[in-house]
Design a protein that fits this description.
single chain, 55 residues, elongated, AB_hydrolase_fold, Lysophospholipase L2, two-stranded parallel ribbon, Hydrolase_4, alpha+beta
């Protein structure tokens, strides 16, 4: 991101897109690096794993 995407898009807004597990990873990135992206699109993010009664 820092070497390729950001230098080539300094005059544009940059968004994060994450789907399913990528949404979970993207959410963690957004928490760790606030303000890095102009916005985010999370499509069906896997924010919790439901295993039923299985630990």
């Amino acid at each position: 991101m820092d070497k390729v995407v950001m230098p080539n898009n300094e005059d544009k807004k940059v968004f994060l897109f994450g789907h399913s597990m990528g949404g979970a990873i993207g959410t963690k990135f957004l928490e760790d690096y606030p303000g890095y992206f102009n916005g985010a699109i999370l499509n069906a993010p896997m924010l919790e794993v439901n295993t039923g009664n299985i630990p």
